[in-house]
Amino acid sequence: MGSQIENPKSEIENPMPGPVFDVREVTFSYNHVTALDHLSLTIPTGRRIALLGANGSGKSTLLRILDGLAFPEKGSITFCGEALTEERLRDSAFAYPFRRRVGLVFQNPDIQLFSPTVFDEVAFGPLQLQWSREKVRTAVDNMLEVMKIAHLKDRSPHHLSTGEKKRVTLASVLVLDPEVLLLDEPTASLDPKSASQMIDFLIGLHGGAKTVVTSTHDLDIVEDIADDCFVFQMGRVVATGTPAEILRQPSLLEQTNLVHAHRHIHAGGETHSHPHLHGHKH
Amino acid sequence: MNFFERTLAGFLDAVEHALDAEEVSQANGLLQRLDPRVKVVGILMLIIAAAMAHKFWVIGAVFVIALILAASSRVSPLLLGKRVWIPVLLFTGIIALPAPFVIPGQVIGRIPGLDWPLTAQGLASARYLVTRVETAATLSVLLILSTPWTHVLKALRVLRVPVVIVVILGMAYRYIFLLIDSARDMLESRRSRMVGEMTGSDSRRLAAASVGVLMSKTLQLSGDVYSAMLARGFRGEVYMLDDFQTTAVDWIMLFCFVAIAAAAFYYGR
User: Fold this and answer.
1) Which terminus of chain B has fewer Cβ atoms in its 10 Å neighbourhood, N or C?
2) Distance CA A177, CA A101 (A)
3) Which CATH number goes with the domain that contains A192?
4) Chain B residues near residue A111 by CB distance under 8 angstroms
5) pLDDT by residue (tens digit) across B82-108?
6) How does pLDDT run across B199-221, given as a tens digit for each residue?
7) Is residue A3 one of the residues assigned to a domain?
């Protein structure tokens, strides 16, 4: 086994409470279809950020870029003041601490659950970062307890419900105790109870002073999980503000396809339509 | 049921078998309690001993030992019969069928009506083939039934199988279920929009198109999975935990396996 990198002290230090990520004029496209178009934004340390936008607005692409899985065609991105490039991530001295400090939870849990058992899945990250075997076992057992999935440790991921899969994916990232957590549609495909448990957990995360960036189009959860919002449309940020400020702008929400004019019938038989939040609580 | 549906039904059947196997592997039996490394090495030795034996009674003795292992591991003879003995008998029976007629030797009879000669050497060859394969298949299935697949994979590490191969096998097992589900969803969504029977050529065209779509999905999935691995620190080298513990029972059983295999080698020469 190579050298252990349990407490990575790298060149990536962030002594000042400056931005974790600074994205400048980033452009990215898939097969000539533009996903991000001269996008600029800053993710401050210790804040909870929501990326709001309809499907295809570029939120997931930005998360992949923030996690160093895709690289911009134009523009630049820094992580704690260090340029985040493909070349830098080839350098172990940068890559290992970066992977420890930044965790991404994918929208589709099946992508992230590639190991034969739940235990192996949660142990994958620590093992790749070459923690000692004993530390891996302890950390994985603790994380399984925290996420209340210890009873699933020997199960194969294909036997799990979607809610359980989501918890395992979160555990597999949180076991590394990342300082920055990137979440792609954390409540997508979850039943109401599982979604509520996930939101409770995300609210609890803030106690650890983590920087949490969540991509979502579920407006019901935004006020619970975010301090600040970026609203996306066609690969650009079209609005920023606190959740309360954003949710007070129905025309913005309608223009960015986050709400739609909902036709409904009143008791008197009158039928009409007006902008209406998705997933509303009655 | 058309070609594509039959193929998919076969895959789904295999999935159900895999799930059955995981249930049996949780039972409280002799093999289930053993360290998987001992099982893999021990059963592999018995299989090699049966394959190399030149005496019928030695192969029969190894087969009896396999039956004793099955009984002590709560693997029902009915399950073995359905899963191993009948399919193997049919498959190897077809292969062995010409042997009694084409292998030259002492003629012990003729087929009525056809007058084909039946030779003693040919019959012996057919018998050896069928019993060796039945014994080897029974032992292999016992290993698979009594051990979660994940433990089999990890145990392969003691046979010096490279870790990257073990990881690829593990991921293949993991994602085959996902892709079968995907194929079934595709099929059901198409069937829900169809009226009447398809012609043979249309059915083949549909199968080819579906395979293409599935291949495309597989490529997409493999790219995404690779990204998910990178995101958690994968840099080309895979590390895994081999966390088995060997007990006194494991050593005793390993000794038994070695002794039986050595005896089978010696007496089966």
Assistant:
1) N
2) 7
3) 3.40.50.300
4) 221, 224-225, 227-228
5) 888 898 888 888 888 888 888 888 888
6) 778 878 887 888 888 888 888 88
7) no
Question: Nearest 5 degrees, angle CA B93-CA B96-CA B100?
Answer: 125
Distance from the B126 Cα atom to the nearest Cα atom in chain A, whole angstroms: 40
Chain A residues inside the 8 Å CB shell of B153: 116
Q: Does B150 touch chain A (CB under 8 A)?
A: yes
Domain total of chain A = 1
- pLDDT band, residue A106 (cuts 50/70/90): very high
**Inter-chain residue contact B178 with A156, CB threshold 8 Å:** no
Is there a domain that residue A5 lies in? Answer: no
Q: pLDDT tier at A5 (50, 70, 90 boundaries)?
A: very low
Kindly state whether residue A132 falls inside one of the protein's structural domains. no
Cα-based distances in Å from B137 to A90, A232, B51, B131, B149: 47, 59, 11, 10, 17
What tokens appear for A33 in the block?
A: 């279809």
Instruction: Name the residue with tokens 């340390």.
Output: A45
The 10 Å Cβ neighbour count of residue B37 is 20
Does a structural domain hold residue A234? yes
| Interchain pair B174, A120: CB under 8 A | no
Task: Check A116 against B170: CB less than 8 A apart.
Answer: yes
Percentage of chain B exceeding pLDDT 70: 91
**Which of B149, B224, B233 faces A111 most closely, judged by CB atoms?**
B224
